[in-house]
Amino acid sequence: MPNSMITLNYQKCRPDLCNSGYCTAIPACPLKLIEQEEKYGFPMTNSAVCKGCAKCVTACPFKAITLS
Ligand code: SF4
Ligand code: SF4
User: Fold this and answer.
1) Ligand 1 pocket, 60 CB below 6 A?
2) Which of 5, 15, 39, 56 stands 20 to 30 A from 22 (CA)?
3) What are the pLDDT tens digits along the chain (68 aa)?
């Protein structure tokens, strides 16, 4: 689906509880649209070319990522 977009909810996001500080949604995205500047940092996204596959949504254990 073109023109999809993900939103990160920083109220729910807990990088400290995800894979020793590493966001588990990052390796799940086939387009590498989620990045983390440093271990334990909040992930950020450039979802301009997001294809809406929802793999990142599934990979996040805290339901911090929503797709629209
Ligand atoms: S997997 Fe989810 S809760 Fe964990 S750092 Fe990534 S977005 Fe945040
Ligand atoms: S929905 Fe798919 S393409 Fe879009 S950011 Fe998530 S994993 Fe990447």
Assistant:
1) yes
2) 5
3) 567 999 999 999 999 999 999 999 999 999 999 999 999 999 999 878 999 999 999 999 999 999 99
Residue 56: which of 38, 37, 40, 32 has the closest Cα?
A: 32
Domains, in order of start, for the chain: 6-67 (3.30.70.20)
| Token pair of 21 as six digits | 């500080």
What does R_g of the chain's alpha carbons equal in angstroms? Answer: 11
Distance between CA 41 and CA 67 in Å, rounded? 21
- Residue 43 in contact with ligand 1 by CB distance below 6 A: yes
Q: If you measure from the C-alpha of residue 48 to the centroid of ligand 1, how many angstroms do you get, rounded to a whole number?
A: 19
Cβ of 25 less than 6 Å from ligand 2: no
- Looking at the CA of 10, which ligand is closest? 1
